[in-house]
Amino acid sequence: MDIHLKKSELKKEPLAVQITGSKSETNRLLLLQALYPELHIENQSNSDDSSVMLSALTSKDAVIDIHHAGTAMRFLTAYFSTLKERTVTLTGSQRMTERPIAILVNALTDLGADIEYITENGFPPLRITGKTLPNHKVALQANVSSQYISALLLIAPTLKNGLELTLKGTITSVPYIKMTLHLLEQIGVKTQFENQIITVYPHLGTVKKQTIVVESDWSSASYFYSIVALSEIGTRITLNSYKKTSLQGDSVLAQLYDQFGVTSEFKDHTLNLTKTRAVQKDTVIAFNLVNAPDIAQTIAITALGLGLQCDLSGLHTLKIKETDRLEALKVEIEKLGGKIDVTDSRLHLSKNEKLTGGISIATYNDHRMAMAFAPLALKISILIEDASVVSKSYPTFWDDLKRIGFSF
Ligand SMILES: O=C(O)C1=C[C@@H](OP(=O)(O)O)[C@@H](O)[C@H](O)C1
Ligand SMILES: C=C(OP(=O)(O)O)C(=O)O
C-alpha cells in the first residue's frame, strides 16, 4: 500500500498522541519474563518486533521466523542457546539473512553454545541446540552492534557463574547496553560496568514479583519532534507516558531538537513539544549519533525540510540495519532535490532552498524511512511507498498523523 500525503496543515485544537512502550525495553523485558515469570509488564510496545518476540518465546515450533526484528534475532539466539533439550531453527526476512551475527555466535560458542549456520557462515538462519553453557568469561568486538552485548547480558544471570564480558574497541550504541543493565538491576540482578568489562552475577531461581511499566518509545517520538520543527511558531503536540529521566538513549531528542526551535517540557508523564523559535537559515546542524543511531533519518529529514546544512557522524551501524540507511537516504533525498554526500559513517546535507513536490519515496522495508519522510508533507505533497512498513515499530503511525491533521 502506497500513501499519498497531500500538503498538510496541523489542526488548531490541542494535539495529543499516545505512543505505546519502547520496543527495546519491551523486547528485553519479554525475554526476562520468560526467564523470570514473576515479572509483569505494562505499557508494552504494540510493534511487530515485540509481537514476534513474544510469539517466539511462547512457540513450541522447530522453526521460528522473527521477520525483520533485529533485537529478536540477537536476543533469541542467546536465549535458545541456553534452553536445554530443544533444537530450534531461527530465521527471519531476506534482509535478516544479510545482517551479520558472527560476533554474537562466536561469543556464545566460546561460552560453550552449540550453534550452526544453515546457509552462510556469519549470517542467519541458525540451528541452535540448547544446553548448559559451562564457561563464563568471553570477549567480543563492541563496535558493530550493541545488540550482541545486550543478548549476552540478558541470559547472563541464568548462567551458573554469571558472565564476565570484555568489550574490545570503541563501544557503539552505549545507552542500549546501559538500558539492559538497568533493567537487570531493576529486577534484582547485580551487575557492574567498569572500564571495558561488564560483570553480571548469577541470579538462579526466582526474582521478586513486580510490575514494570515501560516508558513510551522515544524513537517513535522523533517523528513528532520533526513535525513540530517543520511547523509554525506556537505549534504544540503533547506525547503521553514519557519521563525526563529515561533509559532510552533517543531521549537525547529533547536536547537536540532545541536547535530546530523545539522546546520540550515534562509535566507528570506528559511531554509537551512546542515550536518556540524560528531557526536561522545559516544554522548548521552537527551531531554525533553513535549513541542514538535510530534518529539519524528523522534529523536529516527535519534539516532537509528546513533547508539547513546538516552534518551527522557516528553512523557506521546504519549500513547493517533494516536497509543500508545511508544509501537509502541519499537516493531518496536526491529525488526531492536535496544535495547529500554519505560515507560509511557520516552524512553531509547541503543547505537547500526548495524541495520538489509530488515525488514517490521508496522505503526499502524500513519503517524509519517511511516515518522520517512523512513530516515533509507539511511543506510539499509526497508519496510514501509500501507505507505499512511502519508496523515494525509503530503500527498506528498513519492513524496518528491523520488525527493531528495530515491529509491523505
Ligand atoms: O538494543 C536495542 O534495542 C537496539 C540497539 C540499536 O542497535 P545497534 O546496537 O545495532 O546499533 C538500535 O539501533 C536498535 O533499534 C535497537
Ligand atoms: C534498527 C532497528 O531495529 P532492529 O535492529 O532491532 O531491527 C530500528 O528499529 O531502527
Automatic annotation (TrEMBL):
One GO biological process term: chorismate biosynthetic process
Reaction catalyzed: 3-phosphoshikimate + phosphoenolpyruvate = 5-O-(1-carboxyvinyl)-3-phosphoshikimate + phosphate
UniProt GO molecular function: 3-phosphoshikimate 1-carboxyvinyltransferase activity
Pathway assigned to this chain's UniProt record: Metabolic intermediate biosynthesis; chorismate biosynthesis; chorismate from D-erythrose 4-phosphate and phosphoenolpyruvate: step 6/7
Class in the EC hierarchy, top level: transferase
Signal peptide: none
Annotated Enolpyruvate transferase domain residues: 59-401
Record keywords, A-Z: Amino-acid biosynthesis, Aromatic amino acid biosynthesis, Transferase
The enzyme's E.C. designation: 2.5.1.19
Stored InterPro entries: Enolpyruvate_Tfrase_dom, Enolpyruvate_Tfrase_sf, EPSP_synthase, EPSP_synthase_CS, RNA3'P_cycl/enolpyr_Trfase_a/b
Protein family per UniProt: Belongs to the EPSP synthase family.
PANTHER family xref list: AROM/DEHYDROQUINATE SYNTHASE (PTHR21090), PENTAFUNCTIONAL AROM POLYPEPTIDE (PTHR21090:SF5)
Name by which UniProt lists this protein: 3-phosphoshikimate 1-carboxyvinyltransferase
Organism: Bizionia saleffrena
